[in-house]
Amino acid sequence: MSLLRRRPARTRVGWVVAAASRHRVPALAAESAFFAALAVFPALLTVVAILRTAGPALGADADVAAVGGMTRLLRVVLTTRGSAAADAAATLLTTSTTGLLTVGTVAALVLLVRALRSVLHALATIAGRPPRTWRAATALGVMLLVGGATVTAAAVQDPLLVLDAPAGDLVWRLLRWPVVVLALVGWAVLVLRVGMRTGRGTLRVTFVAASGAVGAWVAASAVFPLYVSVVARVGSGLGALGGGLILLVWLYLLTLSLYLGAEAARRRHRR
């Protein structure tokens, strides 16, 4: 009789979904996405300002190429439903002001720290640990701005040309996006380890969870524009507001993927 009363074992997906519901992961992801939406444009402006300042070392067209790449990414995510928002972002990115690297960087850092503070608090809730302080979020914010500028410069420029490597242009075309994906995985590993306060022996589990989260980021970025262009027909009537809502939903999918990866990592850690 005891065997008949035994409840069937849950699958891994079932455990993750149940834990996510218990920790209110959808609500945590919505909160983090809101603060991330406030920080995304100041952060992009700061990255462009850093590239303009480092222009002599990176090449005169590094900032122009970065602006073009960021604008294309926004247009892919927002699609034609958010063309007004994409046009406004392109105008901001091409604007050059003397105080962009000072006042603009401070504003971007404040908003980034608030967004990262929300992310770290959510990861601490998932892991059942005390949340990190503002200092950890500030350190991650500075690393994100500097690292984002470095990865963007490497993505739009060819670092192998500086080394005069044979067939460097072809090699870098093949390695560019794998390097960007590896940088995203490294960033996700860092955020998960800092937010969840994991130990040294859990690096492999955290790496697997971060890789899954980045894979979900790539899938969401590839599929979401198709969903917007086919299903969300109301976006064209909302104009720039529709673009902002689309961006918010996209960021929500990214944060939700990260938190589900954290739930999976937590289960593996406990096992």
From TrEMBL:
Its main location: membrane. It is a multi-pass membrane protein. Pfam families: Virul_fac_BrkB. The chain crosses the membrane at residues 32-51, 88-113, 134-155, 175-195, 207-228, 240-262. It is found in: Cell membrane. One of its GO terms (cellular component) is plasma membrane. Keywords: Cell membrane, Membrane, Transmembrane, Transmembrane helix. InterPro entries: Virul_fac_BrkB. The keyword tRNA processing does not apply. PANTHER family: INNER MEMBRANE PROTEIN YHJD, UPF0761 MEMBRANE PROTEIN YIHY. This is Membrane protein. It comes from Actinomycetospora succinea. The lineage of its organism: Bacteria, Bacillati, Actinomycetota, Actinomycetes, Pseudonocardiales.
